[in-house]
Amino acid sequence: MVAEKELIKKIQELRQIQPRKDWVVLTKSQILGREKKIELTPFSLIDGLRLFFQYQYKPALVGVLSILILFGTFTFAQNSLPGDLLYPIKKITEQTQKPFVPEKEFNIKIVNNRLDDLASVAQSNSSKNLAPAINEYKASVSEVAKDLAKDETKKNPNELKKIVKELQSIEKRTTEMKSLGMVIGENIEYDSALVELIKLQVQDLENRTLTQEQIKSIGDIKADIEAGKYSDALEKILELNQSQ
Amino acid sequence: MANQRKIFSSIYDKYVDKIYRFIFIKVSSQEIAEDLCSETFLRGWQAFKEREDIENPPAFLYQIARNLIIDHYREKGKAKIVSAEYTPIVDPREDLEEKAVLGSDIDNIRTALVSLDGEYQDVIIYRYLDELSISEIAKIMEKSEGAVRVTLHRALKTLRDELNQPRVLDS
Q1: Which of A12, B23, B161, B164 has the greatest count of CB atoms below 10 A from its CB?
Q2: Nearest CA-CA distance, residue A56 and chain B, Å
Q3: Is A40 near chain B, with CB under 8 Å?
């Protein structure tokens, strides 16, 4: 007979059964280290990104997407024309530059932008954009006319010279548009402001010592004003200013 | 996650020998015991990650191990076919002299133990090898403490009878 204590002692001898130490270590690292290894696989990276966007950082994703959409919209709007859905956004973008540029330069730049729009409309032969483009152009010209009507602009000959150069460019491009058959119409307010400006420049030139040829040019300028050829008149003024 | 890993790491260190032994005694193969034991801890870790509120980790691991052993025999069609008497213990120790001295006793007791009913085997292993308390065994076996004591008493008696039976020596 085997006594109970002796039996238990015999049973406890089975404690000598033990796993291999290296297997214990290896298995532990395989089980608990498996997580890290899986995290490094491309699939898990994609899963991680998906989880990143789906759960924890959803508000961040919304923010990033909103910025991307806004950025895309603003970029796309730069190619829009008057009458298009995104055109108001283009105008808003233009207005953001206003605080950083002198008002007169800004308004002249806007007129040039509207002339670009008109050129694009003429090029694409888009009849639906034509009327809005002309209206936008007229509105921008009116802003320039208001600037020209201001006293301080007239009193500063050096500033006037700069503006005359810009206006000459505008007038030239406007004439080109009209030559393409585009009926832009006249802006009385702008024209009168422009005439006044040209006359001021003529007066300024007449007060200087002029050659016979320059005196003749001033006569031509006056004739151009009478004929409504403001672009030609401005060009001659520029030439005279350069020769002075 | 790092904290979970740390906790499970200590559970692994504490129970790996016991779970391995528990499996080894029943399958009588080092290779299979290692496979089933690593699978036990892998499943345990996966479950532990999902729900930290595992009330009794050792009980949970023993349960997984038991299920894996059952699956193993079911799959291989080995249930009650493998005779423990002809399956030597693979002792990892390299000292051959030590193996020779201890091998015989260990082999005898293991052979007798695995010939018992599964429940008797378990209760003896839990109590005398793994030194679990009666209440712990009761939780693992889902029995009352009184029922565990009765089972343990009967298991010991059966084992003693088994060991006292005369054996036919291998030629």
Answers
A1: B23
A2: 16
A3: no
